[in-house]
């Protein structure tokens, strides 16, 4: 059943003991830079795309995004050499232009969970080197780097359930006691397939309906609303 952003009474049957966060667009306000670097790279390599469509691909492996664009345009598979070259170009652009800032409200939310004894992990489609360097630089006091699942740890990326299943496995957790906080359609779909409870946060331009259509249980506008949702459903009971 689809809820609305104003309906904060929907919650898992059990209080979650584990929260798994996506990274870009959930921990860090980096998606505009990803969209810009993807769009610039696509144009440089003759791949037709709009800037905003890269928000739809967020969370999946970058190599899968390139393969999708190439096959859509040319009707055949891209070579591994081409995929590698394009991805390296995009990664270089992203690192050159990105100013790292945290999503507003994410630090107090993580600390609130930790103060309640909730376990914290991260599941991202980014590379291990990128994810660990960024989390280590900005959230080292809040997130254990051993509890981060990246694209390098998975055979299949989002929207497959594998990344979130691996995240749960780090903690020997079960889906019924796992909460996922996502912002992108593929990430929401992956989390939903893993059978975790999924809260989607509208930190980008993705419409609420798309997030619900991809499997979100609750859609909220920002991290302050996620905090309010948690406090209302658990701390005030």
User: What is the architecture of the largest domain at the second tier of CATH?
Assistant: 3-Layer(aba) Sandwich
Specify the biggest β-sheet.
6 strands, parallel
Based on CA atoms alone, the radius of gyration comes out at 17 Å
Low-confidence stretches: none
Structural class: alpha/beta
Overall mean confidence score, pLDDT: 93
How many β strands by DSSP?
Answer: 6
CATH uppermost class of the largest domain = Alpha Beta
Whole-number total of structural domains: 2
Distance between the termini: 23 Å
Pfam families: HAD_2
Organism: Porphyromonas cangingivalis
Protein name: Haloacid dehalogenase superfamily, subfamily IA, variant 3 with third motif having DD or ED
GO molecular function, one term: sugar-phosphatase activity
Q: How would you characterize the overall build of this protein?
A:
With 237 residues, this protein is of the alpha/beta class. The chain has two domains: 18-30 and 101-235, 3-Layer(aba) Sandwich (Rossmann fold); 31-96, Putative phosphatase, domain 2 (DNA polymerase, domain 1). Helices cover 46% and strands 10% of the residues. The chain contains ten helices and six strands; from the N terminus they run βαααααβαβαβαβαβα. It has helices at residues 31-44, 53-57, 62-74, 80-97, 106-115, 128-138, 162-170, 185-193, 208-213, 223-235; strands spanning 18-21, 119-123, 148-149, 178-182, 197-201, 218-220. Strands 3-2-1-4-5-6 form a six-stranded parallel sheet. β4 (178-182), α8 (185-193) and β5 (197-201) form a beta-alpha-beta unit. The chain is globular. The mean pLDDT is 93.
């Amino acid at each position: 059943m689809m809820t609305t952003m104003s309906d904060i009474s929907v919650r898992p049957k059990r209080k979650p003991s584990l929260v798994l966060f996506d990274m870009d667009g959930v921990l860090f306000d980096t998606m505009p830079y990803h969209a810009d670097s993807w769009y610039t790279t696509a144009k440089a390599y003759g791949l037709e795309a709009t800037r905003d469509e890269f928000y739809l691909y967020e969370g999946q492996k970058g190599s899968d995004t390139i393969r999708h664009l190439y096959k859509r345009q040319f009707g055949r598979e891209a070579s591994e050499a081409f995929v590698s070259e394009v991805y390296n170009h995009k990664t270089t652009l992203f690192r050159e232009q990105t100013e790292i800032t945290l999503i507003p409200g994410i630090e107090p939310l993580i600390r609130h969970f930790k103060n309640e004894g909730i376990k914290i992990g991260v599941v991202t489609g980014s590379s291990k080197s990128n994810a660990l360097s960024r989390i280590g630089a900005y959230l080292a006091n809040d997130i254990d780097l051993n509890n981060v699942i990246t694209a390098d740890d998975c055979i299949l990326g989002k929207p497959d359930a594998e990344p979130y299943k691996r995240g749960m496995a780090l903690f020997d957790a079960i889906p019924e006691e796992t909460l996922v906080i996502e912002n992108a359609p593929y990430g929401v779909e992956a989390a939903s397939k893993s059978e975790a409870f999924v809260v989607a946060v509208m930190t980008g331009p993705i419409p609420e309906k798309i997030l619900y259509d991809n499997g979100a249980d609750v859609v909220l506008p920002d991290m302050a609303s996620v905090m309010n949702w948690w406090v209302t459903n658990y701390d005030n009971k």
